[in-house]
Design goal:
Layout lengths: L1 E7 L13 E6 L2 E7 L3 H5 L10 E3 L5 H4 L1 H11 L8 E5 L3 H9 L8 H4 E5 L5 E4 L2 E7 L7 E6 L5 E4 L7 H6 L5 E5 L19 H11 L3 E5 L7 H9 L6 E3 L5 E4 L2
Parallel strand pairs: 3-4, 4-5, 5-6, 10-11, 11-12, 12-13
Antiparallel strand pairs: 1-2, 1-14, 2-3, 7-8, 8-9, 9-10
């Protein structure tokens, strides 16, 4: 059984009671922290310590998806966390240098690799992490950005969009998945950070993606501040006939039909 636990889903900054994007994906004893937005390290500790994780997977390097890697670094090396080995970290190209640039305070580069065993993602990357197989697809966010499909050995599957406009890569990756966790940032198609081309889904587009992929269930997340969760769910449900939920902080979704 795969379980999705929402650590946070706020954007572009944490809200009172809701950290930025972060999720715990578990299958049996396997634990993967998916996206590490600001505030999610604290929420993670309700369920697992850093030294109980099998891996961290990061969709892209915007701060609302990756900032808590900085504090995780200090926890891993300079606090009460005792890692038996550097924690596997899967993320976009350049992630180690990005962390080091922020963390280095003197002439010597910060030892990022002492805390994290970094693997750079690419379109089609696949890795086995404990009971899960993680498959990555490049998506459309105006920068290196990825979606991930987590599958267990019994055919259950969860797909997380990361941040992206509707794109063929995400639809292919999500084909037939049990649960699609899809961003619904924009109230208006093509909106978001003055983007041209668009870099986010609207709720209606999230519904379209779920329908096109034949997903069993849609969970909308990363809902923009111009929308309420109820509006996001309603907009997605207008385009997708299956169950639609909101990724409220602390929500737990079992994955399976």
């Amino acid at each position: 059984m795969i379980t999705l636990t929402v650590l946070g889903s706020a954007t572009p900054y944490a809200a009172d009671g809701n950290p930025c994007s972060g999720y715990l994906v578990t299958a049996g004893d396997t634990r993967v922290w998916v996206d590490a937005g600001s505030g999610t390290l604290g929420a993670l500790q309700r369920y697992a310590r850093l030294d109980e994780l099998d891996a961290i997977w990061i969709s892209h390097l915007h701060a609302d998806h990756s900032a808590d890697l900085l504090t995780a670094y200090y926890a891993a090396l300079y606090a009460d966390v005792k890692l038996p080995a550097p924690l596997p970290l899967y993320g976009p190209p350049g992630i180690a240098d990005r962390l080091a640039h922020f963390l280095t305070n003197g002439p010597d580069r910060s030892p990022v690799e002492a805390a994290f065993a970094v693997t750079e993602l690419h379109d089609g990357h696949r890795v086995r992490v404990g009971a899960l197989t993680l498959t990555t697809a490049a998506v459309a966010h105006g920068m290196p950005a990825f979606a991930v499909r987590a599958e267990d050995g019994e055919g259950r599957s969860l797909v997380y969009s990361g941040d992206t406009a509707p794109c063929a890569g995400l639809t292919r990756l999500a084909r037939g998945c049990d649960v699609l966790l899809c961003e619904a940032d924009s109230a208006i198609a093509g909106a978001g950070a003055d983007a041209d081309p668009p870099v986010h889904h609207t709720p209606a587009e999230a519904g379209d993606t779920a329908a096109a992929a034949g997903a069993g269930r849609l969970v909308v997340t990363h809902v923009g501040r111009s929308l309420t969760p109820e509006e996001a769910v309603a907009g997605a449900a207008a385009r997708f006939a299956g169950p639609v939920d909101y990724a409220a902080p602390g929500a737990v979704f079992p994955v399976g039909r």
